Amino acid sequence: MFGTAAYDRAARELRRPVLEDTTSPLDRGELLRLATLAASSHNTQPWKFEHEPMAMRVQPDFTRRCPIVDPDDGHLWKSLGCAAENLVHAAAAQGHRARVSLDPRRGDVVVAFERSPGLHATELSRAIPHRQCTRQPYETGRLEADELRQLEQVGRGEGVRVALFTAARECEQVLEYLAAANQAQLSDRALRAELTAWIRFNPRAALATGDGLCGHTSGRPALPTALGRRLARFVLTPAAQTAIDASHVRASAGLAVFLAARDALPSWVEVGRAAERFALCATTLGIRTAFLNPVIEVRPLRAQLESWLGARGEHALLLMRFGYGRPAPFSLRRPLAAVVVRPDGGHPAT
Ligand SMILES: Cc1cc2nc3c(=O)[nH]c(=O)nc-3n(C[C@H](O)[C@H](O)[C@H](O)COP(=O)(O)O)c2cc1C
């Protein structure tokens, strides 16, 4: 009735295995598909891609910004960083090294490719179609020291590091900040309206747009859109969200805070890259991840988190939980034709 079977078919089709071919010219459609499988804030997919002979430009699509929750577009640029990171690992699977930089003149992210004999698909490349933000409860259990070390290592980038917290009392402290952040956000009408606009209350609604947050991925029952919007007023409350977050955090193996030297470009892109790499690496280890960013988004609580962390001069830019768990239904993406632009800004006829 709600298009669940069609949704699941579309999600499966999007997540075909990665093309591994190090001898043919770059398959740009494949690069594009894998770039768009990256995480993005509210699944807004705030990106456009422009092909160049040996590069791909990842451009911000400001028509998809979320001005209430993300007034400075920091999350938008982190999402572009996530897509750029997928491109790096997708290009390796096609025998190309990729270099990511920011083009201040054009105001976009450039991923430049260069054929590199000997380069091939890695576990991170192969993890791209399997990565997801798993919003369901994890199975209680600690990670091995070696796994934590690996995650810490891949979470490092230029001017970026990840701090991992696994002790119950540390997680409880972060939960306190999260409860206060939920209170601030979910009692704000404008923020609730913006969030609700990105919720797809049933699989058919998600299929129609190919974006947004679908309840199907977090195990919520499907509802007709009009009813879902009416009920959201009663369900999306600070107390209800905090109860869910508390049970999720307590069943997780730990929390990861991504810290950067600056709360501005290019750190936003770097931190997005680090978070995506962290999630890809976690995926290869059977470890699930999900963001919990209200603490980052509500400035006074972010400041409290930073001071608790003793972050001298560093900025907390993303927060994630991680742990062992089963995969959940995958999220959808818009058709590739909707995200490719020609150099003149138009969409190519497909
Ligand atoms: C910068 C950024 C911020 C995000 N913040 C949150 C968050 O606070 N809570 C959450 O549940 N998901 C958050 N997400 C995850 C997105 O909602 C998710 O990537 C998107 O719905 C697509 O789903 P997928 O990652 O499973 O493919 C964030 C993602 C990014 C890139």
What does this molecule look like?
With 350 residues, the chain is α+β, with helices and mostly antiparallel strands. The chain has helices at residues 4-14, 28-36, 74-92, 123-127, 145-154, 168-186, 189-197, 203-209, 225-235, 238-250, 267-284, 294-297, 299-309; strands at 47-52, 55-60, 96-103, 108-115, 160-165, 199-200, 213-214, 254-260, 287-291, 315-324. Strands 1-2-4-3 form a 4-stranded antiparallel β-sheet, with helices on one face. It has a 4-stranded antiparallel β-sheet with strand order 5-8-10-9, sandwiched between helices. The chain is globular. The mean pLDDT is 96. Flavin mononucleotide binds next to helix 3 and strand 9.
- Which CATH architecture of the largest domain would you pick? 3-Layer(aba) Sandwich
Largest pleated sheet:
4 strands, antiparallel
Ligands in the structure?
A: flavin mononucleotide
The number of helical elements comes to 13
Order of helices and strands: HHEEHEEHHEHHEHEHHEHEHHE
Q: Which word captures the global form?
A: globular
Number of strands: 10
What would the average pLDDT be, to the nearest integer?
A: 96
Q: How many structural domains can be distinguished in the coordinates?
A: 2
CATH superfamily of the largest domain: NADH Oxidase
Strand order of the largest sheet: 1-2-4-3
The first-level CATH class name of the largest domain: Alpha Beta
Structural class: alpha+beta
Report how far the terminal alpha carbons are from each other. 31 Å
Strand content: 15-25%
